[in-house]
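worker-03 picked up job from queue 'complexes'. Input manifest follows; two sequence lines, order preserved.
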Amino acid sequence: MNKYRTHNCSELSEKEINKIVHLSGWLHRKRDHGNLLFIDLRDHYGMTQCVIENNNNFFKVLEKTKPESVIKVTGKVIKRSDGTENVDLKTGKIEVSIESLEILSNAKELPMPVFGEQDYPEDIRLKYRFLDLRREEMHQNIILRSKVISFIRSEMLKLGFLEYQTPILTSSSPEGARDFLVPSRLNPGKFYALPQAPQQFKQLIMVSGFDKYFQIAPCFRDEDARADRSPGEFYQLDLEMSFVEQEDIFNVIEKLMVNLFEQFTSKKILNKKFPRISYQEAMKNYGTDKPDLRNPLIIHEITEIFNREDVKFHIFKKMVKTGSIVRALITKNTKDRPRSFFDNIDKWAKEQGASGLAYFTLEQDTKIKGKGPVGKFFSEESLKEIMKHCDAEIGDSIFLACGNKKEIEKILSLARDKIAEDLDIINNDQFAFCWIVDYPMYEFDENSKNIVFSHNPFSMPQGKIENLNFDKPLDIKAYQYDIVCNGVELSSGAIRNHIPELMYKLFSVAGYSNKEVNKKFSGMINALSYGAPPHGGIAPGIDRIVMLLAGKENIREVTLFPMNQNAQDLMMDAPSEIDEKQLKELGLKKDIKKN
RNA sequence: GGGGGUGUAGCUCAGUUUGGUUAGAGCGCCUGCCUGUCACGCAGGAGGUCGCCGGUUCGAGCCCGGUCACUCCCGCCA
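worker-03 finished. Artifact:
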């Protein structure tokens, strides 16, 4: 028999009454009546109430034992008398009458309590992560994560995929995020990079003839954190398939996501066949390529209105004349909202760095008019035109933004979220998935004034190769797609370019010579030159999926040991200094700028 | 790199608007009482460089300047 326990802390029931049992666990809570002491003993599985009276020699010991100490209890299972059962507890019909106990590990006074549901500062939670993880909610989040990963593995195997592992120490790639670098001792002055994703490797697996690959893959990117983005490392369900078209990937992912979300939540999946929205359409209607489709608000283009003689809104008219555009958001039936509702949104917009949001409400007495600060600038005819164009009715309000396309998209996409939140019109019991498709192959980079790859340089451009117009590279679309759920970008994927000549051509548009391509992507180019299957894939972010399933807004809530926003592990004290000897071995010298 | 928010007891927070005696509450901790609690109860107690540095002032938790930490966002994230 195991020396620590005969049962775990959630197993005992009326079946075991009168049995002598051993339980081990954490002292969750004490209720000391002076001559009678109740404790809740907790382990991974649950909680059991144990009771001890003052005639027992161990009474004084237990009274002195601090919460979160680990103890072993030996005693008899007894039925709780009528009226003293706890229906909220699985083991609430019984309790263990303590006969003896052993302190297995004493706890000091706690920096943060495990008991209760209070919020604690993140730095304390991270430093004492082992305490934080004992708390019910965090514990359940991590269990959920584990189950999700197991489920994904088994579903992928069922779908005919095999899991392959790829190197962690690899080479730095010029495109994409900043790399984490690892110095090579045997090759002084040279560095490995941790993979930002196993992108090239998974393609090489296809070229090696394995057909369907997946991996729960760690990815490393040295970029700044966000609530939904850990600094440093995260996990992707990385997958790749040979002899496929875009729709084949979509079918696999839709099946997987629907099964997964149905398995782990009771919330409704809005469309089991995920809507396909082109990048262009998404930017026009939502101002972003990761729209939250639970949000009914749509952005409308109304620049033309400001060329009318009977519109006197001179600030906007002037801007429109010099090339600015005007787009609008309509909120349904908001005429009775207080002035503060509108002013708050305008104020909020200014805080976001916009010049604010002009607004008015459509009203009608003898004729249609605009009510609100800028309403008077619009004639009845122009208002009718706006209503027709934006699908607006009397009682609706209109928020207007004017500026260049990029600014407008940004502020209205944020405003869309903000206004919907204020109006409380987002249904939190839904998951709204969609595909964003037809991404442009290239974009114009304002900083460098160059044409750069907008997503993945290995993507296959759309259309027949001989028809591609490389003189207008910004018009070339790629078989490149994102999957978005509730406004969270879950992943990007693409059908890959498996034709070396085309790849040289595409890279040359982005300013890479053939020589450079050969040097920087030698593995890939070489592999594609010896018979490569058409292939494609995608890589949904595991952390974000679990975050959605757990209903959390922060990725650290579903990660065992995350780093803080400064990419520090407060528990392990990483990153840390290393000694001179290690530096010397690697041929490195520190040259840190003093603050 | 930039912007916002926060920082007061071990923890959660009030006090800052309008500067003024010894900075409060709840939880936790310590002591005592308590045999049916499950957020046990009751009584008492300890615990504070008000993030840090500087300034204004007769006087600063409160006002000003700087700085640090955490966090959210922008940039960045093919």
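worker-03 released lock.
Chain A has a mean pLDDT of 92.
The longest helix of chain A spans residues 136-158.
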